[in-house]
Specification:
- The chain is an alpha+beta fold and 72 residues long.
- It has one domain.
- Helix content is 19%, strand content 24%.
- The chain is built from one helix and three strands.
- It has a three-stranded antiparallel beta sheet, covered by helices on one side.
- A hairpin with a 5-residue loop joins β1 and β2.
- The radius of gyration is 12 Å and the shape is globular.
- The termini are close together.
Length: 72
């Protein structure tokens, strides 16, 4: 088995912090969770996970489910 979604998100957050970026987590349009990594001065729109949206470039991951603890 691979890394769980909780640990994946923690890795994304650590990397973003190292790079001076921010992480935003939003409920996905079709379920799941969308993760965005973006500059601190950018506020992510609710529709940013759609490919035609200008902020889609900040989309980093889609997680089917996201728990509140490690499940590795």
């Amino acid at each position: 088995m691979g890394i769980c979604n909780y640990c994946t998100l923690q890795r994304i957050r650590r990397r973003a912090e190292e790079d001076g970026q921010r992480v935003t987590v939003r409920n996905g349009w079709m379920g799941g969770t969308d993760v965005f990594v973006h500059p601190p001065d950018v506020e992510i729109d609710i529709a940013a996970a759609q490919e035609e949206h200008p902020q889609f470039k900040y989309w980093a991951a889609w997680l089917m489910s996201l728990g509140d603890h490690c499940e590795c």
